[in-house]
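Reading is simple: each integer encodes one residue's backbone shape. The lines below illustrate:
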Amino acid sequence: MAESSAATQSPSVSSSSSGAEPSALGGGSPGACPALGAKSCGSSCADSFVSSSSSQPVSIFSTSQVHDLIFWRDVKKTGFVFGTTLIMLLSLAAFSVISVVSYLILALLSVTISFRVYKSVIQAVQKSEEGHPFKAYLDVDITLSSEAFHNYMNAAMVHVNKALKLIIRLFLVEDLVDSLKLAVFMWLMTYVGAVFNGITLLILAELLVFSVPIVYEKYKTQIDHYVGIARDQTKSIVEKIQAKLPGIAKKKAE
């Protein structure tokens, strides 16, 4: 009798245990962590999220960040970037690249070494064991995975291929008007190069990048009006030139 009662109880016990296993292994609500305790659950879920998201490459600057930067959405951040890059370009205009890079590295090393010595003296006086002051930064994993590297290279190759195709199209005169535009632009650039050097052009470009967008945002209506007039005049002149060039009118008629 004892054996029969045990036999009859065993299916219910096995079924209840088998039914409890899925819930214990995450068979409850979707997205729920395993029943490993609150602390271990949070850490395991965080680790799984980090491992799954770390395979995707993270861009340093997104389009929205660049947009906010040149439109002075954050005045302090934009002022810091604008001031730093402008000082660097002015330094390159006055000194050689080797001197500027050497001075920058010396300045950075002076700050980090002074802070390291200062923290060491404070720890010796207070007899504390805080450890290396830059330990949090030294432990940061900055290695670039092969997958992220290939993703960046593939994205760069798209732009490189477009540039090569455009260069071949212009120099082999696929469109005569576009090639003439390039010739005129390069002819004008010879005069620009006679007045300005490369560093001066970079300084002017930075001033324009950080000033033109904000000015255009404030006076968008008036600028669009005059730009539209200039575009119409340019379009009419180009059409007249195309009509007089041999082969262009025939090609459009076909």
About this structure: The mean pLDDT is 77. The longest helix spans residues 97-126.
